[in-house]
Amino acid sequence: MADKKGFSLAGMEGPVCQPDDDRYGFRAVAEGLARSICALDENISTVIGIEGKWGSGKSSLLNLLTAQLRPRVSPQTQIVTFSPWLNSPDESPVSAFLMNIAARLARLDTSAQAQAGRLSSLVSDLGNYARQTSRGLSPLARLGSKFFPWMEMVADGMEAVAATDLSQREKTVSELRTAIEQQIAALDVSFIVLIDDLDRLEPAQAVEILRMVRSVADFSCFRYVMCYDRDVLAHAVERGLGVQDGRLYLQKIIPLSFGLPRPESFDLRREFREGALAIWREVNEGEPDEDVLQTLAHYSGCYGEALSTPREVNQALNAVRFRYPGLRDYVYFPDLCLIQLLMTVNPALSIWVEHYLTEWSVVESRDGHMQDDEKAAITVDLTEALNKFGAIRARSVWEIRSWLPGIDGYDEQSVSLFNTVSGSDLEEASAQRRLSSMVYWRYYFSFSAPQNVMSDAEIQNLLALAGSDYDALERKLMGSVTANGVSSRTWFEHILTRLTPVITENAGRCAQKNLLKFLFRRSDLIIPFYRQRDMLFRLEDLGINALASQLIKQLKQRQPKIAMSYISQLFREAEAFAWATIYLSRLGTWAESKSIDLDRGEVDDLRLMMGVRLADDSIRLQQASIPYLSSFIIAWREIASKHVVMSWIEGGQLDDRAYLQMLLNFRTGVNSSSQGSYLHLDLEFIQKVMDLDRMKERLADIKARDEHTLRGMIAEVEKAIELSTE
Hints:
Elements: H1 4-8, H2 26-39, E1 46-51, H3 58-69, E2 77-82, H4 93-108, H5 112-115, H6 121-133, H7 151-154, H8 173-187, E3 190-195, H9 203-216, E4 222-228, H10 230-241, H11 246-253, E5 256-259, H12 265-284, H13 290-302, H14 310-327, H15 333-345, H16 347-364, H17 372-387, H18 397-400, H19 423-431, H20 456-468, H21 470-481, H22 491-498, H23 501-507, H24 509-533, H25 539-542, H26 544-558, H27 560-572, H28 577-587, H29 590-595, H30 600-614, H31 617-622, H32 629-639, H33 642-650, H34 656-665, E6 668-672, E7 676-680, H35 683-689, H36 692-705, H37 711-724
Parallel strand pairs: 1-4, 1-5, 2-3, 3-4
Antiparallel strand pairs: 6-7
Helix pairs in contact: 2-3, 4-6, 6-8, 9-10, 10-11, 12-13, 12-14, 13-15, 14-15, 15-16, 16-17, 20-21, 20-24, 21-24, 24-26, 24-28, 26-27, 27-30, 28-30, 28-32, 32-33, 34-37
């Protein structure tokens, strides 16, 4: 297992520099490779290729190889590390390399010329050779009486070069090469040249390096070790030379090649998991709990199987290291690691996940819906993204459904998206700040929450009002009913979804009582707003009933008798009497009452309190104006009796205007493929609550009186009756 120092490097992109930092077994490879290189005849020019994908660890291996070579070679062997990638693109790599060699030879030269401080013939020949053999992107300046200013940058300690007689006849390239060979042999020196990042060069520069090692600088005492991605370099050769098969060309140039072994998959998965845990410990200054450990291990084992190089491990960990400190309080650490891992090994799936969650949050919040063709298209995109994994477990739909919401099915044929998620699952996801949370999902792709979601701080401020200042709470909530924020939902709808059982349970008894009090006071003012906005509106969709049941259950858990006294008072004094009546009728079902721990006797007591409230004369005068009158009448009949309801409708207590308004409020929404959405008067329902013939007679009497101010209402009622027969 790697030590703490090793894991501290997990977030760095650079290659391994010290043997102790090696976590993938490259040290053993470097040892074997060093022995093989040292066994080669140093008098024969050799080119060795180390092949591997980008990020596979070639630079790390080269660093470790250098460390292994130094104690093994003789003092006369020069180890030269040459990185043409770092040279200016306008500078010939051949010139840069040969002048590097010239600088080293100048230090080794003990000739009389060198002792006198003048440029030796060997260095002069190398300079002229470099000028004549470079297919100069930038011509090599003639050697002058003093050093080139840039020569200090490529030389390895050369300090001064004397003037030379430039009037002498320039030697041919062949003559220069022969002279250089002889002079190097006389110095009894050899070179091992390590060339890295060959696959990063422009095609012209890459070809220039290959020409150098097999032609220009193919001196007998030179051994070259070059690192490259074979596919990338072959493509550069094809572009640079116009050949059809760059691989065959490389075989001629590089007779000895060594394929860098790919790290074992379990090594890469282990390094990602342990590196991630090191980040967690560093940020949190402690140990993760068992849930974090198990989930991270699962993600690393499943999706980490797609890791192919150490660089990919580093890239994923870099992303986690960069994001996690600022997001610690808003994300679930294993989910954050998962997303960064996907961004590295399967960007297409990562993009798909963000797209899906964007659409899912809109559907789940009822800000919009997905058409069938849209669902089909996004399902196809999911299949294509998963297929990029190949034949590994991460390709499974079963795996992705375990951490993304609204997905059903077990394979490509049965997968189904945008399915309804249970309230308990959503609540748990938000409590843990999971990727599947409506509140927190966007943090995983940015440093901010979804714009149509209230922050935790805002919700806590609301609960603080609920616990201390009812009037301020009521103003806040009523103001949120018509405030849309940045979506089609109002903030009130959003608040209802955020007031989960965990949130209200932790808010305290006073906050629970005041929130429940608000529902009994103001629901009859809130519901008409949503019904007017959408004629197909259903009370169940708003979530008021669910919140009321949740609060009643929580109040009863601690002090049942005191809680029931308070709840009875709310029903007896309910200003929102219409909603309270409908809600109470649903509490009468065994399943609903049991779910909030109400027994039959307690429900009967509440029905008695509600009956007292509905018998109030002031309430009777308001009933005709209830917008959702059909639902209220059904509930009222259950609490009182059919006779009481019939007496109110036909007992002459309603004047003509109130009677017409009552009929209009009996209308219900219908959605038709031919006519769209409209309101009709369901005569079958009317017949259940009143005498239909008497209703038609009274409507005819009102119309016969032809009161000008009632003509519009009469026309609407007649239209609603007409629509009911279609």
